[in-house]
Design brief:
Elements (H helix, E strand, L loop, with lengths): L1 H13 L15 E2 H14 L7 H12 L2 H11 L2 E2 L6 E3 L5 E3 L2 H4 L5 E2 L3
Parallel strand pairs: 1-5
Antiparallel strand pairs: 2-3, 3-4
Pfam families: UBD
Organism: Dillenia turbinata
InterPro entries: DC-UbP/UBTD2_N (IPR032752), DC-UbP/UBTD2_N_sf (IPR038169), UBTD1/2 (IPR039869)
């Protein structure tokens, strides 16, 4: 019986509804070009932090999609969402994936490119 309770709790955890991150502010104003460069650098290096490349790819697709599509992506990839804003997730093997807010949403102090 303990196993059934454990697996049910795990499936409920992986089915956590995701939401947009709360508004945030970068330490200094960023242009859209600078934000894109930061995001590109993160996604290029993310697989080196550990975990599976397929999960990183799914997280990137989810981060760049609208919220309902993002939910479908993480559900189908078997991503276990700890924080509803996707900042902390796990795969089915228990590897941890941490996403910075700048890959999930825009800062409140985003400025126009010159």
């Amino acid at each position: 019986m303990g196993c059934a309770g454990s697996s049910r709790a795990k499936s409920e955890e992986s089915a956590k509804k995701i939401r947009k991150p709360k508004p945030w502010k970068h330490s200094e104003p960023l242009t859209r070009t600078q934000l894109k460069q930061m995001r590109d650098e993160f996604w290029d290096t993310a697989p080196h932090y550990g975990g599976q490349k397929e999960i990183w790819d799914a997280l990137q697709a989810a981060a760049e999609a609208d919220i309902s599509l993002a939910q479908a992506i993480v559900d189908s990839a078997g991503v276990i969402v700890q924080n509803a804003d996707l900042t902390i997730c796990y795969d089915e093997r228990g590897a941890k994936y941490e996403l910075p807010k700048y890959v999930l949403s825009e800062p409140t102090n985003l400025i126009r490119d010159s």
